[in-house]
């Protein structure tokens, strides 16, 4: 397969002066230009964080998605790090909602504690202890996983994504500042491209930046004639899942006991930490 050089597909500004001109049915998205492909995107004024002053100055600036450049390395790593680090809490606490077996085990542990100690006070401490252990293991494993990513592809984004055929890395820039990232990694054998490393600075969320980044990957996949885009996420928060659904991805399965580098699978670890890995796919063409 011949890939178009990433430069050819990464120059589109995400702003539009006439949003309505971008809407309407598209029977064959493959033949549309990038500005025609997707619904309207936010203006720079709406993308400014609530806390920032000088709105007038910012309104003059354009938020746009562009290819990664080596000076973006540290900002990209920071956004990636902070985005994944948020999962420590959500996996430890919110994640329990999706683990019925563990809920039962924890309940049995509390009952046993009451039977043995006959103390309500001690029994009330059981949930605190369990949540503490969940937080401990979640933190340990997610930080390990993060370190691993920061040592591999995120250690040299230019080398790993920009110099490889079929791969690319984009940043969302507002007022000269990198506020979001996403990567595409092609697999020539299967003719699929994987969307990876999607993350937006927490000060700039809910403004359509992730969607714009996602569209850039879609655009890249179409122009390079990939048959589908796949991704996997262990995100617990609803935002990531809504994002992929809103981009047209289909949820194609969930792996209940997902493993990430750094997991030891000890009994304690299994008792206090589980990851659900959701797989999504967006079919672009029939093979
Ligand atoms: C997930 C994440 C990338 C979303 O970034 P964002 O810029 O806030 O997302 P957008 O504003 O582009 O929103 C895109 C869609 O996501 C959904 N969404 C975003 N935030 C949401 C929230 N808090 N609750 C529910 N849905 C949400 C919306 O459906 C939205 O589509 P719509 O505008 O058509 O309704 C961001 O929260 C993040 O970086 N999280 C940490 C890292 C992470 O989890 N990455 C993805 C996992 S691989």
From TrEMBL:
The keyword Mitochondrion applies. Its main location: cytoplasm. CDD domains: NAT_SF (cd04301). The chain crosses the membrane at residues 105-130. InterPro entries: Acyl_CoA_acyltransferase, GNAT_dom, NAT_camello-type. The keyword Mitochondrion applies. Its EC number is 2.3.1.17. It is a single-pass membrane protein. GO terms for molecular function: L-aspartate N-acetyltransferase activity. Residues 131-274 form the N-acetyltransferase domain. GO terms for cellular component: endoplasmic reticulum membrane; mitochondrial membrane. Keywords: Acyltransferase, Cytoplasm, Endoplasmic reticulum, Membrane, Microsome, Mitochondrion, Transferase, Transmembrane, Transmembrane helix. It catalyses: L-aspartate + acetyl-CoA = N-acetyl-L-aspartate + CoA + H(+). Residues 44-67 are annotated as: Disordered. Belongs to the NAT8 family. PANTHER family: GNAT FAMILY N-ACETYLTRANSFERASE, N-ACETYLASPARTATE SYNTHETASE. This is N-acetylaspartate synthetase. It comes from Hymenochirus boettgeri (Congo dwarf clawed frog).
